């Protein structure tokens, strides 16, 4: 009825808004909602509408648009910070013995971190097309470096392996670049051929021959651990793209057979495998490093001996304390709790990476995010498994934690790329665009407030007409600069007489 007042609900019966199209159902068919939908769901409460900031605070953490971004950033940042602390603790004794200062190796690692952080920031702001454009040049440069490191006089031999190229104070390990290069190249290749992937020839060629050639170059160094981590990248991408199981099983079987042959051919590899099954059988020989690592972990107990209190880091005890076996020092100084924190942080990082791959609409982003996540998590599992005695020792470092710039910089670049992918999620992109628009509007409003308003009735500044006196005219004093004659030049010719 026109002019009638709306009927209020009885006291004590709150009215809850029903989302349009819900049909009265309290939940949608999907188990999760985007951050934008969750904000709309809580935009009203029992007392009336609330502002947008309050609504955003009520959204569950994992439903917020930038949840993947902050999960990845926080877990990687904490691992990097923990790595700096543990490199200082683990390397102090041997750094003093080698260089006369307990901080030399730590300062080098801090410099690498300082170089890597701007790379992370820059990569996190790059669009997807830039990463795709870098795929082929980066792969070509990596293959050239892998071939160059095998040349005597160019490649540096350490521990019986020719894996490094020394250029002045900088040491380059090309096998670390191969991981991110394969991530970009494999993802871009399959995206370009996505309409022809039903044909096995287009699915496996040239992807499989190229990564097998890279594996061969790394095995010639030899670097079995690096070859394992590199192989994980294309295998993960092939799985995500939807390779038929019979073909995928054939590839996996061939890889396992090849790895078995390589392990049997080289005597030192078969000895390492046998020592892995029972390291205490040769505790002073091939099982020495594994045994010392187990001793370090076992002496830490629940809470550890405290930072800097490790005994295994002293010379003649645990080898590679600040690189391959830094987890043993973490376990000794921070205990089981500290070791589980490291495992948990890698778990959060892996979850964030897979979440980014799942929530993206771009096929390249899905493949690259899955490849980077598999590379980092598998490398961490191989390293931690070797330290605790569950896997053979392969010389693989712990990502973000172990000492070494050649491994750290590619990992940070890959994490920066993942951060860029997290910002490009549909919900995150909409949220960032809206936030940028609000900030521009706020800046414009502040600029308008700072601008001094003109008072009513106040005359503005008279414009400078660049008047110049004409020959023959006199300017009388007291006339305010006005000529007493009949002519006046204003800086342009007088065309009235014409």
Automatic annotation (TrEMBL):
Principal subcellular localisation of the protein: membrane
Recorded metabolic or biological pathway in which this protein acts: Cell wall biogenesis; peptidoglycan biosynthesis
Location(s), subcellular: Cell membrane
Pfam families per record: FTSW_RODA_SPOVE (PF01098)
Region named Disordered: 1-50, 444-498
Residues spanning the membrane: 67-89, 110-128, 134-154, 202-219, 225-242, 247-265, 325-351, 363-388, 400-422
Signal peptide (from-to): none
Biased composition (Basic and acidic residues): 34-50
Entry keywords, A to Z: Cell cycle, Cell division, Cell membrane, Cell shape, Cell wall biogenesis/degradation, Glycosyltransferase, Membrane, Peptidoglycan synthesis, Transferase, Transmembrane, Transmembrane helix
Keyword Signal: no
Any single GO BP term: peptidoglycan biosynthetic process
Composition bias, Basic residues: 449-461
EC number: 2.4.99.28
Catalysis performed (reactions): [GlcNAc-(1->4)-Mur2Ac(oyl-L-Ala-gamma-D-Glu-L-Lys-D-Ala-D-Ala)](n)-di-trans,octa-cis-undecaprenyl diphosphate + beta-D-GlcNAc-(1->4)-Mur2Ac(oyl-L-Ala-gamma-D-Glu-L-Lys-D-Ala-D-Ala)-di-trans,octa-cis-undecaprenyl diphosphate = [GlcNAc-(1->4)-Mur2Ac(oyl-L-Ala-gamma-D-Glu-L-Lys-D-Ala-D-Ala)](n+1)-di-trans,octa-cis-undecaprenyl diphosphate + di-trans,octa-cis-undecaprenyl diphosphate + H(+)
EC class: transferase
Listed GO CC annotations: cell division site; plasma membrane
GO molecular function annotations of the record: lipid-linked peptidoglycan transporter activity; peptidoglycan glycosyltransferase activity
Membrane topology: Multi-pass membrane protein
Function noted in UniProt: Peptidoglycan polymerase that is essential for cell division.
Family from the record: Belongs to the SEDS family. FtsW subfamily.
Protein name, UniProt field: Probable peptidoglycan glycosyltransferase FtsW
Annotated organism of origin: Frankia alni (strain DSM 45986 / CECT 9034 / ACN14a)
Gene: ftsW
């Amino acid at each position: 009825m026109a002019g009638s007042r709306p009927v209020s609900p009885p006291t004590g019966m709150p009215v809850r808004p029903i989302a349009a199209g819900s049909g009265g159902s309290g939940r949608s068919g999907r188990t999760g909602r985007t951050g934008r939908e969750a904000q709309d769901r809580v935009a009203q409460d029992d007392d009336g509408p609330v502002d947008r900031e309050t609504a955003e605070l009520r959204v569950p953490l994992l439903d917020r648009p930038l949840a993947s971004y902050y999960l990845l950033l926080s877990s990687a940042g904490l691992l990097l910070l923990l790595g700096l602390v543990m490199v200082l603790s683990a390397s102090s004794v041997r750094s003093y013995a080698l260089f006369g200062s307990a901080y030399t190796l730590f300062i080098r690692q801090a410099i690498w971190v300082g170089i890597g952080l701007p790379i992370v920031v820059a990569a996190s702001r790059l669009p997807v097309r830039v990463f795709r454009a870098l795929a082929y040049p980066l792969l070509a440069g990596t293959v050239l470096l892998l071939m160059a490191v095998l040349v005597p006089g160019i490649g540096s031999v350490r521990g019986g392996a020719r894996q490094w190229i020394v250029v002045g104070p900088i040491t380059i390990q090309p096998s670390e670049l191969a991981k991110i290069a394969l991530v970009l190249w494999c993802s871009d290749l399959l995206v370009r051929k996505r309409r022809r992937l039903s044909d096995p020839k287009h699915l496996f060629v040239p992807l499989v021959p190229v990564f097998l050639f890279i594996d061969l170059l790394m095995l010639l160094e030899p670097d079995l651990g690096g070859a394992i981590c590199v192989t994980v990248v294309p295998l993960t991408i092939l799985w995500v793209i939807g390779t038929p199981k019979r073909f995928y099983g054939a590839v996996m079987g061939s890889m396992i057979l090849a790895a078995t042959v390589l392990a049997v051919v080289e005597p030192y590899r078969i000895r390492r495998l046998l020592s892995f099954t029972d390291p205490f059988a040769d505790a002073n020989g091939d099982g020495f490093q594994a045994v010392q690592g187990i001793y370090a972990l076992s002496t830490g107990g629940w809470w550890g001996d405290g930072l800097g209190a490790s005994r295994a880091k002293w010379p003649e005890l645990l080898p590679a304390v600040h690189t391959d076996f830094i987890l043993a020092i973490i376990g000794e100084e921070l205990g089981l709790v500290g070791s589980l924190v490291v495992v948990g942080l890698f778990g959060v990082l892996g979850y964030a990476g897979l979440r980014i791959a799942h929530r993206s609409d771009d096929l390249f982003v899905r493949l690259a995010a899955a490849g980077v996540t598999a590379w980092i998590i598998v490398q961490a599992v191989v390293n931690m498994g070797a330290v605790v005695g569950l896997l053979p020792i392969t010389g693989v470092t712990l990502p973000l934690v172990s000492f070494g710039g050649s491994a750290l910089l590619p990992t940070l670049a890959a994490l920066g790329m993942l951060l860029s992918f997290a910002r490009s999620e549909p919900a995150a992109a909409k949220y960032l665009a809206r936030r940028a628009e609000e900030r521009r509007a706020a800046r414009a409003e502040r600029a308008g407030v700072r601008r001094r308003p003109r008072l009513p009735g106040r005359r503005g500044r008279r414009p400078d007409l660049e008047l110049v006196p004409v020959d023959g005219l006199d300017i009388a004093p007291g006339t305010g600069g006005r000529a007493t004659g009949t002519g006046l030049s204003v800086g342009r010719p007088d065309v009235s007489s014409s």
